[in-house]
Amino acid sequence: MVLRYQHPFPQMDLADGWGSMAGGRSQPHRGLDYQPGADAAIPAVAAGVVSANRWSDALGNVLVIAHPDGMYSGYCHLAAASPHQVGAAIVRGEPVGVVGNTGSASSGAHLHLTITFTADGTWNNADIGVTTDPYPFINARLNGDDPGHPFKESDMPKIISVPAGTIALVTETFGTKYTSPDGGQGFSIAANTQAYGQVSGLTEDQVTTLVAEANARGQHFAELVAGLR
């Protein structure tokens, strides 16, 4: 199953997009800016669960949503703290805050949206390698599927580890197995572990089975959805 995403607004600043060094930046721009005007309500780009609601000196008021595909979306420079508490279920399109101009990295009212592989949801304390360009990422998922409602905690990522070192990210409908905790994906797994806990002590065969079962459920769900169209 491919999770369905949407752009929060049509007014994107592609001239200063992801990776831009405009404005005298010392590091590449690691998000995508939307400019619908101050106080515009911001819709969630996909279904998920709130994993962070915090203040950042650079990014101002920030809300982070953890999505069932293992990705995170961060909504930055909000005019005020989001009303959603950590653990709250969010559906795609649901308002998560309003556009503001908070934080030292903002020079005008806009939404700075980030899509990341890690639970930080923004840029993980200057580790810019954990972000991905929201523009092509969202465009590739505009025709995906929303998860069933109400959103279930069991749909969120769970981390499984084998004593020998193999790790896996498994949800109810998606599973991925990795052979090493090192590298970009391994760091993503580690970050997810902090947010959602870890299951350990399983054998290699048991992990392989769990991953296969999750993917089989996801494929079956996708076929059911396709049959309803």
From TrEMBL:
<feature type="domain" description="M23ase beta-sheet core">
    <location>
        <begin position="28"/>
        <end position="116"/>
    </location>
</feature>
<dbReference type="GO" id="GO:0004222">
    <property type="term" value="F:metalloendopeptidase activity"/>
</dbReference>
<protein>
    <submittedName>
        <fullName>Peptidase M23-like protein</fullName>
    </submittedName>
</protein>
<dbReference type="InterPro" id="IPR011055">
    <property type="entry name" value="Dup_hybrid_motif"/>
</dbReference>
<dbReference type="InterPro" id="IPR050570">
    <property type="entry name" value="Cell_wall_metabolism_enzyme"/>
</dbReference>
<dbReference type="Pfam" id="PF01551">
    <property type="entry name" value="Peptidase_M23"/>
</dbReference>
<dbReference type="InterPro" id="IPR016047">
    <property type="entry name" value="M23ase_b-sheet_dom"/>
</dbReference>
